[in-house]
Every structure is written in C-alpha cells, then in structure tokens.
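Worked example 3 (structure in, sequence out).
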C-alpha cells in the first residue's frame, strides 16, 4: 500500500466544496482543512504509484477551485499499534 499526502491550495470561498469533492475520490482516505501556507491536506492510500498520479492528476487536480497541489509519498508510517507490536516481538504472553 502506498500512502501519500497531497497539499492543496484552494480558491477563496471554495474550501467546503473542494473538501467534499476530494473526499469522494476513490483512494482518498481523508481530507483536512488546515492552517498555514496550504488550505487542505488529503491523505491518499492506494496500491501503487501510478494510482497516486491518477488520484492527484485526474481527481484532485480537476476539481473546480483547486489552484495547485504538492504531493509527498510516505516512506514509512509510524503508528502507535506498530510500535507496540515491535516491542512485543518475542515477548512471552
């Protein structure tokens, strides 16, 4: 599974519409409106790199009100359950 973060600049007054449209795209796990230099972040989870390109270019990038995107592919995910599982390897029950 490939995880990616897509940072999205949105036209003024379009955050709600763009957020709803992004959330409906297959491969977008969640969408957040955020503070700072960008307006929204979409968490993308798909099976391969080609699908990331499809979600960003053919999906998010074509939504009316999206001004620009910047996508980052995740190398590794750190989740509490993964860390706990790593510490329990070889531990007796």
């Amino acid at each position: 599974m490939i995880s990616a973060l897509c940072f999205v600049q949105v036209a003024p007054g379009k955050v709600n519409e763009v957020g709803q449209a992004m959330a409906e795209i297959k491969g977008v796990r969640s969408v957040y409106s955020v503070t700072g230099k960008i307006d929204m972040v979409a968490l993308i989870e798909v099976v391969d790199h080609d699908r990331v390109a499809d979600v960003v270019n053919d999906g998010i990038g074509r939504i009316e009100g999206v001004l620009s995107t910047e996508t980052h592919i995740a190398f590794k995910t750190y989740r509490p359950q993964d860390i706990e599982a790593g510490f329990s390897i070889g531990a007796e029950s």
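Notes: The longest strand covers residues 2-10. The chain has one domain: 2-88.
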